[in-house]
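Below is how a single chain appears once it has passed through the pipeline. First comes the sequence as given, then the structure the pipeline wrote out for it. We keep one example in the README because the format questions we get most often are answered faster by looking than by reading.
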Amino acid sequence: MKRILVIEDDVSLREFMIKYFLEKEGYYVITAENGEIGLEKAKQEIPDLIICDIMMPKMNGYEVIQALHAYAPTARIPFIFLTAMSDRANIRDGMNLGADDFLTKPFVSQELITAVKKRLEKKAIDDDKAKAGIKDLQKKITSVLPHEFRTPLSTILSASNILIDESDTIDKGELREMLGYINTSAKRLNRLIENYLLYISLENTTLGEDMLNETILCTAEHIRECAENQMKKNNREQNLVWQASIPSGGVRAAMSESHLNKIIEEITDNCCKFSKADTPITIAMSLQNNNLVIEFTDQGIGMTKEEISQIGAFMQFNRPELEQQGGGFGLTLAKRIMELYRSTLDIESVVGTKTTVRFSIPLAT
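Resulting structure:
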């Protein structure tokens, strides 16, 4: 039985119309006579849907929905506003706050029932998608992470055991080689852990004023150095084709330095991993429509449109054939960071030929 909370200060409308018709349809109805009581009951009962009047004493409907969205257990509950106002501005304000639907008083019983059924059906679909997404993520984690953790750990354990067992006889050349294996594997493991923790952090982050106020003086030298450092790690620095048409003193962009560096690092790393050695990797910077545009092009394996649409954490396409290192975080992290700044990461690709990844950052005012 679906549970519906009705918050309405008009007792006749609340008890003798809305509650009556909903119970007649088989719903369990909880009622509250004002916003303060409604908010408490929502937190206690966690209903499947909330119907709420806008103009109420003590706490209006706008304040109720804002408080509910700030509380994780109630943040995703479908919300229908009741209003006697026909002013479009009030409706728009409610939708901007996250309302799912509106009922304008007076309304007939069928309008009420239809709105409720529609929102509950949509919630059921969203819940099914969320469950499917969780199962898919669990499957990816179990197939990717064990391998990515065990491979560098095996190298570290094997090399360190040799050093322990043969410490008295091993020569300096072999010692340096073993230490190199350990160091490389430790760095690989460290990056995997850092990217995993960043992914979790970004998934639980929303855009705030502190992020909106972040800026960086972005110069061609800064971007090039960041990209070259990543290419050196892949032994590809000689493949860089650099193009920059921005002022020599740089431009101030609306993004934090750490986030910008991470985007450059991950996209450059992807270009190196998924293109053949000695093929060019072109990085271009330009100013377009008051935005700093940075574009990466590699002559690599490319992706289909379907693969581009499926980009996500722990997703590495053609993994058995390519066997590339990493948890599939690269483009996912870059894409998520851009979303937090209300921007996009555009990908154009021709399978077997090339891939271009492009993103733009608004210039700071």
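The domain at 209-362 is CATH 3.30.565.10 (Heat Shock Protein 90).

See the next section for the split statistics.
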